[in-house]
Task: structure prediction
Amino acid sequence: MKPAHLGFLALALLAGSAGYLLQAWSQRQSLAAAQALGPVAEAPAPAPAGAPVEPLAASFKDLEGRDQPLAQWRGKHVVLNFWATWCPPCLKEIPAFIELQRSLEQRGLTFVGVALDEVEPVKAFVAEHGVNYPVLVGDQDVARLMSALGNEVGGLPYTVVLDPAGQVLMRHQGEWRREDAAAALEGYLGGAAGAPAEASNSR
Result:
């Protein structure tokens, strides 16, 4: 190959690598910006093609690698919390969820953590912090369900409350503070059903 051709090839490879790095950096910046925004109000979004028609139609692996359909919690109020061990706001809100699970479980509510993460770090976190509700893991399947449930920015944490029939009661983008979560869940458990609620922008 001629030296000129070698030089052109090297330049093309360098440009391609730079483009990839810029795209990766841009994606990280977008995710960080979405997480920094905290809770934002959102209207219901239509599910993309191929997504579950209803949230409880989805299924994920548990920490032992077994398939766990969300439909097994039909009949309860379910709090689906999408999170990851590498997401600081996610880790900040989980102790409140552990407390709320303990206090509201007998009233027909269960939290279900759905981690966009690897099994081993999730398993270590669950053991260390005594997470007292089911925790499942996944990758693109988790991202698809979040998108189907209206998480257009793809940021974590993202929490969805379902009624006993599996219908969405509310969605919350960003960290869910304990007092806000407790007030919302008490309202639903008290029988005040209605249209999907919007998350508050207040911090």
